[in-house]
TrEMBL record:
Reported cofactor(s): Cu cation
Post-translational modification: Topaquinone (TPQ) is generated by copper-dependent autoxidation of a specific tyrosyl residue.
Species, as recorded: Sinanodonta woodiana
Active site: 455 (proton acceptor), 539 (schiff-base intermediate with substrate)
Transmembrane stretches, start-end: 33-54
Keywords, alphabetical: Copper, Membrane, Metal-binding, Oxidoreductase, TPQ, Transmembrane, Transmembrane helix
Domain of life: Eukaryota
Region of interest (Disordered), ranges: 74-116
InterPro entries: Cu_Am_Ox_Cu-bd (IPR049947), Cu_amine_oxidase (IPR000269), Cu_amine_oxidase_C (IPR015798), Cu_amine_oxidase_C_sf (IPR036460), Cu_amine_oxidase_N-reg (IPR016182)
GO MF terms held by the record: metal ion binding; oxidoreductase activity
Biased composition range(s): Polar residues: 74-107
Cofactor, how bound (note): Contains 1 topaquinone per subunit.
Protein name: Amine oxidase
Amino acid sequence: MADNETSINSSSRKYHIGNEQKEKKSFNYCSHFFVLVVFAVGLVGGICIGIYVYHDNKSDNSCLNQFSQGAGANTGGSITTSTQTKASSDGTTPSTAPITNIRQCPNRNPKDNTPYESSLFAPLTVKEMTDVSEILWREKFITTINHAPRSLDENFILYMYLFPPRKEDAIKYLYNNGSKPGRYAKVHIQRGAEHVPDIMEYKVGPLGHPEATVTQLTTPGEIHFNSRPYDGVEVKALDDLLHTDMKVLETIMRESFDNATFPKDLYIFYYNGPPGRTTEGRETRFVIGFPALEELDVINLLPLSGTVHNPGNNVSVWYSHSYYYLNQGPYRTAQDLVHAYENNTIRKVTLPAGYRNNLRRELFPERDTSLPPREYGDQPGARSYMPKGPRFSISGTKVKWMDWSFHISGGQLKGPAFFDIRFKDNRIAYELAVNDIALAYSMDASGQNGIIYMDATYGILGGVSSTKILPDVDCPSHAAVLNTSYWDSYSQKALDMDSICVFEADGQEVLWRHVSPNFAGGMRNRHLIVRVPVVVGNYDYIFEFQFYLDGKIYTMAKASGYIQASFWDEYNPHAGEDKTRDAFGYRVSEYQTGPIHDHMFGFKVDMDVIDSNNSFEVVHWKAGDILGALKTQSNITNVPPYFIYNQTRYVEYETIQKEAGFKLSYEQQKMFVMVNNNKKNKWGVKRGYLIAPLATGAQSLPDVHPAMKALSFTKYHVTATKRKEEEPYLSSIYDINRMDNPKGYLDLMLNNESIVNEDIVNWVTVGFLHVPCSEDIPMTARVESGFLLKPFNFFDKTATFDMPQYYEGQDGMNVEHEPAVDACVEPKTKY
């Protein structure tokens, strides 16, 4: 049998060898032809690739992603090449990587063509503001239109923004087929032309209706003229008044400040608020400074200051007084200060020659080319993109994403806002809105000590400074951008700006996960972000609202920009021996100190847990003995034997009966929960939402401080009040300018009303303490605070299991992954 097998296999092998010799000749002819074809194709392809790369390197679209051969190509143009050669970072061995199916990601504009005006809550448009100004002009409410006011003796528009509909009317329209409320504008008019000047507020509308009317909201004289914010007209009048004094002080300025003269080399900074301690006596403190940054420069302020008494609109009775030089004074007039200076009865300072020439280079935020570059710093950083296009949509200003929906709103004074926030067809909140930003400064500097700002007075979303979105800095280039409008009081015109961006973010982190011997499961954290960068003078703020797949909302307030500095005086008699710091902060540069201050952000959070019939609970986190813990729930008298320690931690539940404000304390920790007593989850627990302030500072000024009534919202981290239409905000924009007679502060709302089963508003205040240091020069790197709104027994279980996730069982069955990604090039699109 073996011999037969050998014979058969041998003959068979001979047969195959014969065929191989025949096939080899044929293959040689074919291979030669194939090589020629490949060479020709390669030559032509190489030339094409060279042309493509040459032109591509000159274009903006220079990034080629590298994909595997099997990458899908659903839509979009494609570019097919064979290889890409690139020198390695150290310049030694080049690497070659295949590139196939390069295509742009499919894309669509998430915004439709619905006009903003059709939305119930959309910010006012430029056209609406212009129409309102024409109505007010026609009805003789204003004396100035379409041009800058020439004096304080005119009636002109200070501010204009959306007057939201009554909540009751909006809810009827949104949920119960009620009629649609009209759109109205709220307008602040500075009335300098009246016999008794004042500020008046009006409601104008319905907008777009031929019979729009003007309704008076305040009475004449109710808002004192001296309570007004600073504007360009007043600043020009102040400049004109001080021009003579600046000439008197020229010798001091030249000798002290590197041969500087006014107004060529110096400017006057007036915004050292508040303007006096009383309403009747408006007093404006000013400081001389270098305008080295070519904008509102509050870093390069100098030790020369004074005060202008400037109440009312009669400029002829204004006068300057209380001059200080290196904190020495007060001198009644500029001439008195010069007399003391020339008689050498005061200390002097002399900046080195050429000092001014270096200021811009030292403080302008541009890359320092004298420093060695970081390794790989010249290569693009990591990015995220949308492989199938946006997963959200925007109609007018209404946004939908992953079972979330809400309306974006806001106005120039108070900032961005959201209305009718829903998740999985449940109303979570009726209104979530920025209301104010408070800053209180402390420093040893004449003209600047005790500065207090309430930024809503100047305008958060357009006002003293407008804003713009920086693509690929504030938001990714593919974010959808919405614009808002604001009223410019100086030009008396409505201005438009790109101010809000919306995009889905890849957190590149876990939302939930677990790995065990039996399975591995998890979900990647992707969330929708609405981001609003704003500029208020020297500070840039970024408000960010993050909507999560499990029903959470993170609200963040972030700060950057320039600090407001004060002059560093080496021989300050109050500073002591340590010349690097004093009681109010650190020296941060050659002639500047960084004064300590805080940033406190106030928000209106009108939670509606399912509906408006809610209660406010505090869950106290405590520690104590076992019997004390158990007695919070029952009348037990003996400790059960199974407890191994006599001390434990426990929670105690409290339903707050009356309006109240609460402060966070590490020693007495607590959680704040809005609940609906009439709506229960599957387990019989009241459905609710947790309000959790994140890392935050606290107000340390005592209640006796003159500004604390106006700043009363900063005293509490969470305040619960009964909702009222006549209490729309947590502060008044005028109160910091009328500290002796404030009328719109949060403490006034705490009048002991019941908040059980009521429509409740939570006023949430978070922030941070800022002790400027050298790393804040020239630019403060981002610092932040915020709060979390989180489902708290609102659902029966984690609210993400209707989404694809990662899951792999031990046996390899029941495998699930997120939808597959067809690799593509990120589209460079601005919607």
